[in-house]
Design goal:
This protein is mainly alpha-helical. It has 18 helices and five strands. It has helices spanning 5-12, 22-32, 41-51, 57-62, 64-81, 101-118, 124-138, 143-153, 169-179, 187-194, 205-238, 240-243, 249-262, 273-287, 289-304, 306-317, 326-330, 333-345, and strands at residues 18-19, 351-356, 360-369, 375-381, 385-389. Strands 1-2-5 form a three-stranded antiparallel sheet, covered by helices on one side. Strands 3-4 form a two-stranded antiparallel ribbon. It is globular.
């Protein structure tokens, strides 16, 4: 087990010599499919090489409007929630109004990853606002605020479309898959992880739930990929592709694939449709709960440190527009420091494990004392598990 930053960098940047244990990969594959998080070794390097251009600075910059627009929608929803008449029991306007902020952040990041990841509209935030409107109506909220909720959520209070069963089928399937791991692993799950013959047992409730969710994810995923390909073909025929067109990550990957086909290149220069589809749950996991949870912890830290909160607010208020550019956001130095410190202190992933697949030497930034009392600045490893832990955890 190590927390040495130099050793961690060496281990995590060498996916050939240091790979996730087989039981860990089985769990990831069962949960998310065989996407980038599942791949190891040369296959991992191949997928990363193909996908890296889609995550370039220019492409991320082009998605700024997606992030800003959805953030403004979240701001408006939270402002509406904090309207005193929306919560008659909250007391006068100068008193606290309770808000389940994580739920709103989760819906916001889900909408963002849907649009930025694969140009798919979940409508999660509007659905949550509409559900809040129904609850507000049941409390006898004023007609004016009811109408504001309706306008913001674009739903009818008399409609049942915000019930759980009417949520977007893809987001529901993805959420059920992720939520199936809540509460830890059952004995059967652990047996499946460490004793492969137990994986033949697929009639337990979690296996049935995962299988059902995977069917929905695959069906919708194939439909999304087909629609993106058709849209790209139409863009190419009309010339729109030269002027713009969809810029989501999935579309960029499909365009890269089609370009490889056009040049007659095959093999390790492109992703198959199945590999493309397996990236959808990966995008979902990487850009949804991780981001919303990190933001929630950042807000909690700011609530506990009023001086930092005031200094950050002062910097943000200097921005004269509700739609800042990426350059304007990058110029906010104190915001950058707050985000970096929050990510350091509230790590999304506190630890991970790798297995050495070939003989290697791990360098250390700080010398350590071995069991014989000798100071060493490197460690020779041969086929053994290595637990890497965030230095702050």
């Amino acid at each position: 087990m190590t927390t040495d930053t130099k050793a961690l960098q060496h281990i995590l940047n060498n996916s050939i010599a240091y790979q996730k244990p087989e039981e860990f990969r089985y769990s990831l594959g069962d949960l998310l499919g065989h996407g980038l998080l599942f791949a190891e070794g040369h296959e991992h390097k191949r997928q990363r090489r193909i996908m890296n251009p889609a995550f370039g600075t220019m492409h991320i910059k082009e998605m700024t409007n997606v992030f800003v627009d959805k953030s403004n929608e979240l701001r408006d929803a939270l402002n509406l929630l904090c309207t005193p008449v929306a919560f008659p029991s909250a007391g006068p306007a100068d008193e606290w109004v309770p808000v389940e902020v994580l739920a709103y952040l989760s819906c916001t990041t889900l909408d963002i990853i849907g649009t930025a990841g694969f140009n798919y509209s979940f409508g999660a935030l509007k659905t949550l606002v509409s559900k809040t409107a129904k609850k507000s109506a049941s409390r006898g909220t004023t007609t004016q605020v009811k109408q504001e909720f309706i306008n913001h959520g674009e739903e009818d209070l008399d409609s049942d479309d915000t019930d759980e069963e009417h949520h977007d089928p893809l987001s529901s399937a993805l959420a059920r898959t992720i939520d199936s791991t809540n509460g830890g692993f059952t004995l059967l799950q652990l047996l499946k992880m460490y004793i492969p013959p137990f994986r033949l047992i697929n009639f337990d409730s979690r296996s049935r739930l995962t299988r059902k969710s995977r069917v929905i994810i695959n069906q919708i995923g194939k439909s999304i990929i087909k629609d993106r390909k058709n849209a790209i073909a139409e863009e190419n025929e009309s010339g729109l592709d030269k002027r713009g067109g969809a810029k989501d990550l999935l579309t960029l990957l499909i365009k890269a694939n089609l370009a490889e086909n056009g040049e007659g290149k095959i093999g390790d220069r492109k992703l198959s449709d199945d590999e493309l589809m397996n990236q959808i749950p990966t995008f979902f996991l990487a850009g949804h709960e991780t981001t919303s949870t990190s933001t929630a912890w950042t807000l909690f830290s700011l609530a506990c440190n009023h001086a930092i909160q005031d200094k950050l607010r002062a910097e943000l208020l200097e921005v004269s527009t509700d739609h800042p550019t990426m350059e304007q956001l990058n110029s906010l130095s104190y915001l950058d420091m707050v985000v970096r410190e929050s990510l350091r202190y509230h790590s999304v992933v506190t630890d991970t494990v790798r297995v050495v697949t070939e003989e290697d030497v791990i360098p250390f930034e700080k010398p350590f004392e071995d069991k014989n009392g000798n100071l060493r600045s490197e460690l020779r490893c041969v086929n053994s598990p290595i637990y890497s832990v965030s230095p702050e955890n």
